[in-house]
Amino acid sequence: MNDRSYISATTGELRGIPGVEPVLRLTFNVEADGLADGASALFLATANIESGPGRLLSLGTAAPVLKLLGFPERDGEDVYKTPVYAEWKLTDTAIERIEKLRDGGDLTIYPNLEYALISPGIALPDWRQPERPIRATWPRQPTNIRIDSHQWVTNVLEPLQLAAAVSLVVALPSAANDEQRAVVARLATARQRLTAGKPDDLKASISASREAVELLRAMRPATVNSSAQKRDLAEREAVILDKMRDLAQALFAYDSAASPTDPHLRDIAWSRENTVLALGTAVSLAQLIFART
After folding, report:
1. What confidence tens digit (pLDDT) does each residue in 224-247 have?
2. Which pLDDT value is given to residue 65?
3. Structural domains present in the chain
């Protein structure tokens, strides 16, 4: 018997969808033909992300999607086409792990789509072993998609207001002390307040980043050789931290002008960009210093 009834799928676009719980949405273009009126299928999608050989991350299983695919016969419109949206929740941790894997580069998505025929409709489909409802799409199946760094930023991070996504993957030394743990705690607070995004949150985020830098500065020599050429590595890092502390304070002071009543300062608002600058730099410095500890 020929398999005249079929459900096939091709890979569509990948996008970040904002919401109370942001999601990563991959569209599958599904096509069905030969199914009886009332036939429906439940789709299950899984996917892996790769960024270079051996650098893999599993997205897991997306939320299942139920679709009605069988309709009464229509002249000249036998094939039914519909999008199926596979969506994975994007927590802060998930975004950080993907960004750590991506490391500013491109990604390849390896999707897989299966379906279960929940209802055959008024008659069984015309395929081999119709009593087996769980199948892979056929004759067309999803293919891998390459997402370059520009597409990732434009289609995923920007809709989620994370175009400058900050990784908080800071590896603590094997024998981490209380001061180092305190740095990570302040950076985590800064990231949380940045994600919240209200003016008071942005203010608190910059403040937490500044406190993290002050803790880092205390890990380096209190005095620095006045001759730049004679400074050792720790002294050079101390100078960088001094400048970063000044930068964080300057950003805090600049944005603090958002509340005064002076007419020439009323247009100043707490800036997300300044908050990202403070946090991103603080994270990079923590990564550098912890790696040398």
Report:
1. 898 989 999 888 888 888 887 887
2. 97
3. 6-157 (2.60.40), 178-291 (1.20.120)
- The structure's pTM equals 0.63
Q: Bigger pLDDT: 198 or 258?
A: 198
Res 269: pLDDT: 62
Question: What's the confidence (pLDDT) of residue 128?
Answer: 76
Tokens at residue 17, please? Answer: 């969808």
